[in-house]
Amino acid sequence: MDFSQIKSIEDQHSVGVYSKRPIAIVLGKGARLFDAEGKAYIDCVGGQGAANLGHANPRIAAAIAAQAERLIGLPEMFYNDVRANLMDRLCGLTGMERVFLSNSGTEANEAALKFSKVLTGRNRIVATMRGFHGRSMGSLSATWEKKYREPFEPLVPGFSHVPYDDTDALDQAITDQTAAFIVEIVQGEGGIRPASASYLSAAQKICNERGALLIVDEVQSGMGRTGRWYAYQHYGLQPDILTSAKSLGGGIPFGATLLRGGLEKIPPAVHGSTFGGNPLACAASLAAIDFIEEENLLEKAAENGAWFLNALREIDSPLIREVRGLGLMIGVELKQKTAPYIAQLAERGILVLTAGMTVLRFLPPLVIERRDLETVAENVREVLRGSI
Ligand SMILES: *Cc1c(COP(=O)(O)O)cnc(C)c1O
User: Fold this and answer.
1) What's the 316 CA to ligand 1 centre distance in angstroms?
2) CB of 244 closer than 6 A to ligand 1?
């Protein structure tokens, strides 16, 4: 099928919730994507954060194939060897103690919110302005963006939003009624905004003092994206609950909600998921973890991220308001809408995300080579300086 055939069929049958770009991607390899006409792109969309391991990673493909021939699905009413290994690895990487497995970021957060209510016996949740936590009704109630929320109101009661990175506002919002404060270490959808270290340690302290749980949402910033397994590890924080998804399954759907030691267990039957800890996703996730370790992707993300951030900061263009980031999670905030620049970059064979209307967002697979980042930086410079 060529592009126009693919497009017309999808346009006919899709419910319409996605505004799609005029490109049909049919193949991937590492940090490259290929369209139906065979044109190659350097991928800085990175599956919106789900492709940290690179496309069609042979190591992960082999693990999925091998596990698929052994056992694909198994509800958590039975124990399983692969799941046991994965739980142990995840807790080893994070220092957390217990894991609930699911299939997506919104589910990981949904579980975190429910667990925080069960564990504290309280029912208020504090979230942040510009925060994004997913689109199911509970996680959506913690999400800030009006256009995602308004069509579905009334949402779950008891949620409030405070300005991000504002310690005083948080201090006023967290009370003895608060079950949890949910926060991203680096806001992703909200425009690639890293929190300050002082804010995060204050949040930890305020939550501890008032018996509220600190839920750290690392659905986007996790699995090596920022140069550590999880971004909170840059700051010496101890989340009470940590959520992970996107790249957790090496590219296939997976989510995890991790609880620190010292918290009570969650009572049986209070929550669950049919596909939750399925061996297929667990095997893919284990292969992803092995690959990140063997290829030193944490160091690579830190080094390439620092280089790329600096290269983007060196672009001298009146269009740029600010360049922000941590590791390979980078945003270039413009003084105008990103759409025309994203289209120009795609013409030049570079795929870039947006965050809101004005932030160019870069989430390349962590396997991306420096020379590809050089190409991206050079092309961003050219389109933002209008020199073609
Ligand atoms: C993408 C994202 C989610 C939602 O994940 P889905 O898998 O799309 O449900 C939640 N939190 C953050 C920080 C995200 O970036």
Assistant:
1) 33
2) no
The token pair that represents 78 in the structure block: 């039975």
Is the Cβ atom of 102 under 6 angstroms away from ligand 1? no
Q: Which atom of ligand 1 is nearest to the CA of 187?
A: 13
Please name every residue paired with 252 in a beta bridge, in sequence order, or none if there are none.
250
Q: Is the peptide bond before 194 cis (omega within 30 degrees of 0)?
A: no
Which residue of 48, 107, 113, 133 sits with most ligand 1 atoms within 8 Å of its CB, as the best mutation to test the pocket? 133
pLDDT at 387: 54
Q: How distant is the alpha carbon of residue 5 from its chain centre?
A: 32
pTM of the predicted model as reported, rounded to 2 decimal places: 0.98
Cβ-Cβ contacts under 8 Å for 107 (sequence gap 6 or more): 134, 136, 245, 255, 273
Which residue's CA lies nearest to atom 10 of ligand 1?
133
Substitution site in 103, 192, 219 for ligand 1 pocket (most atoms within 8 Å of beta carbon)? 219
Domains and CATH numbers, the chain: 3-57+296-386 (3.90.1150.10), 58-294 (3.40.640.10)
Distance 177 CA to ligand 1 centre (A): 26
**Can you give the pLDDT at residue 381?**
98
In this structure, the residue with its CA closest to atom 8 of ligand 1 is: 105
Which residues 6+ apart lie within 8 Å of 388 measured at CB? 382
Q: What is the pLDDT of residue 386?
A: 81
The string of DSSP codes covering 189-224 is TTTSEEPPHHHHHHHHHHHHHHT-EEEEE-TTTTTT
Distance 34 CA to ligand 1 centre (A): 25
Give the helix, strand, coil percentages of the chain, each rounded to 5.
40, 20, 40
**DSSP for residue 152:** G
How confident is the chain (388 residues) per 10-residue block, as mean pLDDT? 97 97 98 98 98 98 98 98 98 98 98 98 98 98 98 98 98 98 98 98 98 98 98 97 98 98 97 97 98 98 98 97 98 97 98 97 98 98 83
Distance from Cα 133 to the centre of ligand 1, integer Å: 5
